[in-house]
């Protein structure tokens, strides 16, 4: 787990350096996601945001999520249709996610060799990777011990 306040400060700095607007809604969506282990679904975000901003609608949430993903601040967990904060948004990187099917814990890995191998294989076949999602579903040690 990571410190939500540190992540938000990093996001502020990163957005300033890139010349993009880190609006209060975008900040709040990132704050909600970073405070929830295992990620949040878009409609859960909408429900929470609606409690604070009566005018919040699905496009509001999806625009904020698109921005946060584009800036590398959030990752989409494809298999769960949920979003998780990136613990290291200060750089562009390839990543893999370990997802526990029992408790929902998600851990981000940085096995660069995996990404490099896939990129090289794709290039050999005349293909350019535009987005890569590697999710490893299983059980964490804590859940295995309980079973």
From TrEMBL:
GO molecular function, one term: zinc ion binding
Entry-linked InterPro entries: FUR, Fur_C, WH-like_DNA-bd_sf, WH_DNA-bd_sf
Cofactor stoichiometry and binding remark: Binds 1 zinc ion per subunit.
Required cofactor(s): Zn(2+)
Cellular-component GO terms for this entry: cytosol
Keywords in alphabetical order: Cytoplasm, DNA-binding, Iron, Metal-binding, Repressor, Transcription, Transcription regulation, Zinc
CDD domains in UniProt: Fur_like
Family stated for the protein in its record: Belongs to the Fur family.
Assembly and oligomerization: Homodimer.
Protein name per UniProt: Ferric uptake regulation protein
């Amino acid at each position: 787990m990571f410190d939500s306040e540190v992540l938000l400060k990093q996001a502020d700095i990163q957005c300033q350096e890139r010349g993009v607007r880190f609006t209060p809604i975008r900040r709040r969506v990132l704050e909600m996601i970073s405070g929830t282990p295992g990620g949040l679904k878009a409609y859960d975000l909408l429900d929470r945001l609606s409690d604070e901003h009566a005018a919040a609608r699905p496009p509001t949430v999806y625009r904020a999520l698109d921005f946060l993903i584009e800036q590398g601040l959030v990752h989409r967990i494809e298999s769960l249709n949920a979003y998780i904060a990136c613990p290291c948004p200060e750089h562009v990187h390839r990543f893999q996610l370990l997802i526990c099917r029992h408790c929902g814990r998600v851990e981000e890995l940085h096995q660069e060799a995996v990404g490099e191998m896939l990129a090289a294989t794709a290039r050999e076949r005349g293909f350019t990777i535009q987005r890569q999602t590697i999710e490893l579903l299983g059980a964490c040690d804590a859940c295995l011990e309980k079973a």
